[in-house]
């Protein structure tokens, strides 16, 4: 909680900076900036704080998750991108900070190649949103704000 408001950290992994231009038949035409702008407006209506972070670097994502441990973050929305199927380091960071999180995928990973069906996060996520396009971000943020408990600072 920051400034008396529930706080949500939205983390986007590799290649999500290309949202809107990379394979729009799968991911849609909305850019990451479009998503961020829409969710900032949504946060106002929910009386919440929302912070966005995107990196193509696994270690930067781990660092951001660790920072969230003490900065008043109540919940994390994670779109791990390609790290979904590979990152034990991000999984361990999430478990280490004990902040509840939602796993999010713009496309339906279960309707794609077999190797994309496995996630290192699904078994620990409080919820999983897949295949809802950019609207999934809004669903995830609303769920965190309305359903997740406030995090008590360590």
UniProtKB/TrEMBL annotation:
Substrate binds at residues 79, 85, 92, 116. Keywords: Lyase, Quinate metabolism. It is an enzyme of class 4 (lyase). The keyword Lyase applies. Its EC number is 4.2.1.10. The record marks 22 as: Transition state stabilizer. Is involved in the catabolism of quinate. Allows the utilization of quinate as carbon source via the beta-ketoadipate pathway. Belongs to the type-II 3-dehydroquinase family. PANTHER family: CATABOLIC 3-DEHYDROQUINASE. This is Catabolic 3-dehydroquinase. The gene is qutE.
């Amino acid at each position: 909680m920051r400034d008396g408001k529930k706080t949500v950290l939205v983390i986007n992994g590799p290649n999500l900076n290309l949202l809107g231009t990379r394979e729009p038949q799968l991911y849609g035409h909305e850019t990451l900036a479009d998503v961020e702008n829409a969710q900032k407006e949504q946060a106002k209506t929910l009386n919440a704080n929302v912070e966005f972070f995107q990196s193509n670097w696994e270690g930067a994502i781990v660092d951001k998750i660790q920072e969230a441990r003490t900065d008043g973050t109540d919940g994390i929305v994670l779109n791990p991108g390609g790290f979904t199927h590979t990152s034990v380091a991000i999984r361990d960071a999430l478990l280490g900070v004990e902040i509840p999180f939602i796993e999010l995928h713009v496309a339906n990973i279960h309707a794609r190649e077999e190797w994309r069906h496995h996630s290192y996060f699904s078994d620990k996520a409080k919820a999983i949103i897949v295949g809802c396009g950019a609207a999934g971000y809004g669903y995830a943020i609303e769920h965190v704000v309305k359903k997740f408990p406030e995090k008590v600072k360590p």
